[in-house]
Specification:
Blueprint: H1 38-47, H2 50-69, H3 73-88, H4 95-110, H5 114-132, H6 137-152, H7 156-174, H8 179-195, H9 198-215, H10 221-236, H11 240-258, H12 263-279, H13 282-299, H14 305-320, H15 324-342, H16 347-362, H17 366-384, H18 389-404, H19 408-426, H20 431-446, H21 450-456
């Protein structure tokens, strides 16, 4: 079982204007505002009136969004910091401060600075709830962003109620078919996909895509976001042709809007590579994974969580081609990034441990593999629950090692657990379910329990003279 990871990104509301509306980073007109060092703005602020301070704050805010859209991240960060400092002069409960904190929080989340982002979002949310009331759409903006942060960190229990609350606010304030409802639906569905609740996610994704295609232009970036996440769900459910159609369309939109070297493009490139890897088209997958990695390293940096996804996924191709040394090198780097950014108990850390254990198992390093499988099992059960497909992948792979070591009784228990989890998540005909079922049947055959093996999977041949269980 592979341990590659999709990039089913969430749609965050960020950065925002001072009105609290969603900033569409792909289609903003250039802002002809001064872009300078923060201390220049602050020096002007000291000498000017309150009205001028407001204008200066607004110029900083808009210029920072423009720099963010142009991927001029150092300039965007300096301007956002300046906007926060200026907004602090308006008072601790001013809505302009909430906007600047939200924007700085989203920038920090984008760069993987999760602790800083949480503090900024929480403070922005407190201000907006106090000033506007708990049911205002601007409150939902920050709720969505805070939920997305928790989702990035694998904190499902914290993210889900925030997404649901944002959806309820948007439906009440804006109507059930508003684009912001679609954004929150998309994000909640992405969370369910991460938990392995694909049946629950599917109608949310379909509704979100329908809203966006009805209300927005066909090449709108939010349409692309829905196409990407729905395409990912189709891939996970084995609906490969439908997935390819959706992902290719998402990629075309993002390349048209952003060019070929943008993190949003890399997200779809990665997911399309996953599809080709699932189909066994390794040449196509390797080319696309390398493209995604090149884009993310250049735009986000070598230590960003998305870079870790690319590294781990490219390693899966190398592993499939028995290039174990190269795969190990990439996975060790991905593991280091994820532990640093997400903490040692994050589900993505478990996925990387599982992938690295597979490399060790296949290259004859069983002792090292077993230690990593056990770590991955503990993390996935604690963070994702006992019935998540990621845990099933670890169980299946650990069972393979146990079979190699002729520990058949332990392996049987793990195979049965993996099969049951996959069947519940994907149904009996999904490739992962079929693989787990065949693995169990082969093991039963090794144990001379041929009738059980045939009942488990009739396609697994038994010896001609086998008529009884052993």
């Amino acid at each position: 079982m592979t341990s590659e990871q999709p990039r089913t990104e969430t749609s965050s509301h960020s950065p925002t204007t001072d009105s609290g509306t969603v900033g569409d980073l792909g289609e903003r007109e250039p802002i002809n505002a001064p872009v300078g060092e923060p201390h220049v703005f602050l020096k002007l602020a000291i000498d000017d009136s309150v009205d001028s301070l407001d204008a200066l704050w607004k110029a900083c805010d808009e210029a920072s969004i423009d720099c963010y859209a142009r991927e001029q991240y150092p300039q965007a960060e300096r301007l956002m910091q300046t906007a926060v400092q200026l907004a602090e002069t308006f008072g601790p409960s001013d809505l302009r401060l909430a906007t600047s904190l939200n924007n700085m929080g989203e920038y920090s989340r984008h760069l993987g600075r999760y602790a800083q982002a949480e503090a900024l979002f929480s403070r922005s949310l407190d201000i907006r709830e106090q000033a506007l009331g708990p049911e205002h759409p601007h409150v939902a903006v920050t709720l969505n962003n805070l939920a997305t942060l928790h989702n990035d960190r694998g904190e499902v229990a914290a993210a889900e109620p925030l997404y649901k609350r944002a959806i309820a606010i948007y439906e009440q304030a804006c109507g059930p078919d508003h684009p912001d409802v679609a954004t929150a639906l998309n994000n909640l569905a992405g969370l369910y996909c991460r938990q392995g609740q694909y049946v629950t996610a599917a109608p949310l994704l379909q509704r979100a895509l329908a809203i966006r295609e009805q209300d927005l232009e066909p090449n709108h970036l939010e349409v692309a976001a829905s196409l990407n996440i729905y395409g990912e769900l189709c891939r996970m459910l084995g609906r490969y042709d439908e997935a390819e159609r959706l992902l290719v369309r998402a990629l075309e939109i993002r390349r048209e809007k952003f060019g070929v070297a943008h993190p949003e493009v890399a997200t779809v490139v990665n997911n399309l590579a996953l599809l080709y890897k699932n189909r066994g088209e390794l040449d196509k997958a390797e080319v696309l994974y390398k493209k995604a990695l090149d884009i993310d390293e250049a735009t986000l940096g070598p230590d960003h969580p998305d870079t870790a996804v690319d590294l781990a996924n490219l390693a899966a191709v190398y592993r499939a081609r028995k290039r174990f040394s190269e795969a190990e090198c990439l996975l060790q780097r991905a593991l280091s990034i994820r532990k640093h950014c997400d903490g040692a108990d994050h589900p993505d850390v478990a996925a990387t441990l599982n992938a690295l254990a597979e490399v060790y198992r296949l290259s004859g390093r069983g002792g090292e593999a077993e230690s990593l499988y056990r770590q991955a099992m503990q993390i996935t059960e604690k963070q994702l629950g006992p019935d998540h497909p990621v845990r099933a992948a670890v169980l299946n792979n650990y069972a393979l090692l146990l079979v190699q070591e002729r520990k058949f009784t332990e392996a049987e228990s793990l195979y049965r657990q993996a099969r049951n989890i996959y069947e519940k998540a994907f149904g009996p005909d999904h490739s992962a379910t079929v693989t787990a079922r065949k693995n169990l049947a082969r093991l039963l055959g090794k144990m001379n329990r041929f009738a059980e093996a045939a009942a488990c999977d009739p396609t697994v041949a038994a010896p001609p003279n086998a008529g009884k269980d052993g």
